[in-house]
Amino acid sequence: MSPQPDAGSSNAAEPLAGESIAVVGAGFGGLSAASYLADAGADVTLFERNEHPGGYAGRIERDGFRIDTGPSWYLMPEVFDRFFEHFGRSTDDYYDLIELDPLYEVIWKDGDRASMPADREGQKALFESYEPGAGEVLDDYLADAAEAYELGMDRFVYPSRSRLRDMVDADVLRSGRALPKLREMDEYVGDYFDDEKLRQIAEYKLVFLGGSPYNTPAIYTLMSHVDMNLGVYHPVGGIASVVDAMADLAEELGVSVRTSEPVTAIEPSVAASVPKFTVETERRDGGGATTGDGASGGGRFDRVVANAAPPHVERELLPAGTVDRESYWESRTYAPSAYLSYIGVEGDVDLDHHTLVFPTDWRPHFDAIFDEPGWPDDPAYYVHVPSKTDPEAAPDGHEAVFLLVPLAAGLEDDPETRERFRELVFDDLAEHAGVDFRDRIVFEETACVSDFRQRFNAPRGTALALSHTLEQTGPLRPAHRAPGVDGLYYAGAYTNPGIGMPMCLLSGEHVAEAVVEDATGGGVLPSVVPTSTLR
Length: 535
Prior knowledge:
19 strands; FAD/NAD(P)-binding domain
């Protein structure tokens, strides 16, 4: 039983008392925003189209298996700690964490393999084994990555800077030493390491941000600090347990969470002096069919926070012509989509908790994602076997397997193409990792480009949102306040600060701050913990 707020704690100051707010979508951004808004006194209703909250962070529960369908790396634990501490809670109140060691294994297709130790001396020894002197250089590189992290988080991420005017700030102006990190990531990392494999280890995290080493600014070297300094963790029960924790917290704070109820329209009223919205929904049973009970869904609200793809909101949910940004959305660089396979396997799978499989030259795969979209012939990919760490993931004598191959958004993925690619990847895994479990599969489900389009209304079937190119970083990402629609806000991976569970948590906070600012003319979010102690 998680603790309840004390009288006179975070609910003592309620700058949003009397406000009714709809949150559309219960992904990490929506759950975060709903909690902050309810804690600030608003009457919050959270609508989710699926049976469970989580959005992309869904789950498969079948035949004794429990497999996360989306994010599977628990990074930046301090951001999760900070979120729960804001409400006087702790992550320990809701779920348990296991720190991984090794952090992950890399398998190269030339027969080489390397496991990344959790301790610094082991990391230095690994780097030294590939390039003389690289062990000592690693200290310098990770110190630089830590500085990038501190600059990025303290001056650009924790503070809400979703508008260009927010960048005119003394803290930002004092961050001029970050300017060299605005050049291309691969070039920057090349100043530290000549060995191509070491560069791949330093750069692979960019896939989590929907980018490549050749289109992402070097400020994201901070991701090396995230895994090699801060560590990689696994929440018992998977990422779904984190989603459940956030949903529980939201309900404890008074949020009405309505699952299996997709929003079909958001109608602003032009007559009201205070913005009012009619939100229309379609009630479904757990299997996705409409209930047919004649009950009206939705409701009327003072404000709406959309944790859905903004292009979908503007094209499909708002009245036609309310926001016209077609040329803007068409000109964006979208993060990759993916081929995903969720597999229950009888017997052992001889892979680590996290395994990365790379060709020694991965440039052609990135070209096939961003420059000349197509199905890669020699893919880089990721395999997750949570049952190596977590007994909740699979029944005794079985393994749960999650396989992900980044793909270009917008690819056509008819069943025949998907099946051919499946066989290519499974052949590749057998040849280069020595693992072939095709004759031991208990069940298998897949997802690909068209599924992301259909299930999440994702433009071009992206699995991540907008890539973190230089032109789409920080305040250059879409704003939290929807253009031209007072009282409509965006949360999630499309907005600042960007892609990833921690960033979406923070986007929810930033949206709530924007709502409080608009509602009060400058009020702040209440908190039971002084902000200075959380950074």
